[in-house]
Amino acid sequence: MKLKYIFTALVxxxxxxxxxxxxxxxxxxxxxxxxxxxxxxxxGGTQTITVRARYAWSFGDIxxxxxxxxxxxxxxxxxxTFKAGxxxxxxxxxxxxxxxxxxxxxxxxxxxxxxxLPIISCKKFNEEGEDGKSYRxxxxxxKIVNTTYGNMYIDDGTGEAYVYGTLxxxxxxxxxxxxxxxxxxxxxxxxxxxxYNETVELVxxxxxxxxxxxxxxxxxxxxxxxxxxFVRYTEPLALxxxxxxxxxxxxxxxxxxNVPADAQSWLSVTSVExxxxxxxxxxxxxxxxxxxRTADLTFNTVSGTKTYTAQTTLDxxxxxLTVSVSEFLAAAVSPAQYRLTGTVTNISVDEKYGNAGVxxxxxxxxxxxxxxxxxSEGKKITDLNIxxxxxxxxxxxxxxxxxxxxxxxxxxxSHIHYTPATIKEFLEHEVSDVDYIVIGKITNIKExxxxxxxxxxxxxxxxxxxxxxxxxxxxxxxxxxxxxxxKVGDILTxxxxxxxxxxxxxxxxxxxxxxxxxxxxxxxxxETIWSEDWSSYKANDVPKDPYTCTGNGTKIYAxxxxxxxxxxxxxxxxxxxxxxxISDLKGKTGDLKFSYKCNKDYLTVTCSDGVTATATVKGxxxxxxxxxxxxxxxxxxxxPNAQNARVDDLVLEGKKK
Length: 657
Known about the structure:
The chain is about 5% helix and about 55% strand. The strands form nine sheets. Strands 36, 38, 39, 41, 43, 44 and 46 form a seven-stranded antiparallel beta sheet that branches. It starts with 5 loop residues before the first helix and ends with a strand. The model is unreliable at about 1-25 (pLDDT under 50).
């Protein structure tokens, strides 16, 4: 077809999309628009786009001939309409939508005159063209990337231009196959220029002309190394290799073939045969001991001074290469398949598109982003229940995004899920074989043993809960336990099972996941100022000095319900209390720590002589602020509940000097 009006090309831009196929909006972090090009007819009219913003937004200067409604808005989604009356000459405007520190350009045109664009070289289009303007290029189609949208590469001998989106004869998108364009055809197209992620694109082009190539690939057949006959090529050749035949229609005066340099080690031409307008090229494919591989084969013929080309792609299966994160990062971009396993440190699930962006890390601190990982066949991404800390295995290819390594075309294979738990939740669980992932601050390191390759330490949370981790091992494939560099104050992530020793909860079968360096200042060390001793009392005794008991039920019991060892004291319900006279502070003042074991968490603590008590662990541990000059005071534990409570192992501690 022949479209000679720049207005038509600009109308095509109304559906223009920046970037990849499934991302049809112009993107900024805080601002998105459904289209950044507006074309209004000469007789006047309206056009509407969608603005999606995280914050309040507004347009800058708007020319008098153009009406924008609304010209500002709040966060969320807003329909914005552009309106103009009839025009006698072409009008253009470059509008800016401002949203905090981000700005989006909207190009508006109302075209009246008819203009036929001159053909520009691909080199000049790439290097000197301006985004927002329309251009016409002519060249040979060297590669078709997408046959729905019509994404393709065009080469005119000066360079290669990328076309993103091709309109059909009626100006409709997503109907590329109706045009009959094939690799090797010479096409003339026009459309607006844009740049996305440093890639220059001609978007949503109109096709001006198509000159069919004098050479065409009719079919390809393959015979595997163990096969007896040729079959049509419909899927990648087996990794054992074999023979490939390409059948061509060739109306030129010769037939030749180009094999890419990086494929010549495994793909070779064994014969080229021609007869009339037909040709057959035979290839030998070697066995593949590496990952998946591919080769774009280009066939050439000459007519006069002009060379025509046709192309086909040959794929061969390979072994799936099992690699570590560091090995994957070091690999080259290729179609090879890699099996990658790592710890999930970040995951973002996209329910709309049914995929997930995942960051996988190893124990050495390396990490890689898995772009849009898909679930295995028959599964939904939301059904996988993958969480941070899980060990995930995914199969995909080595890709790159602006120099940053990533996995592309990734498909979920398997994962080991660890149940996340706070320290408090972990302590409340029963002893079991369930693996929990727990995070806490290292408050004590009992031992880091190089000979036994483990570490025994304690982690705590901000609520004062502590977890003893017995003989934690290093992560598989990671640094030796003594080389990890753990220290008091670091924030540790660890996976292990709920165990118990002498009725005390602890983590067993644990192994290191990661840690973040914490404060270099060590936790304060405490020494005992006073501790209870019930050893001289029998069951049903009421303790005397330094104790004062109130309530009918407050007395000694020969049991161990509080969590200590027998005997213990019961503090009676309904405001029963136990008061302790502290006569010797051993020179300590300031913040003291008072703690005890209890089967309930609702007991309260008050003090005399201006000493204030602040709970650090509800009903079990308190910070007592002792004013300077106080030599003695009384601590009173009160039970405000309608149930009795058991208490044991009462201790008052002060910081070591």
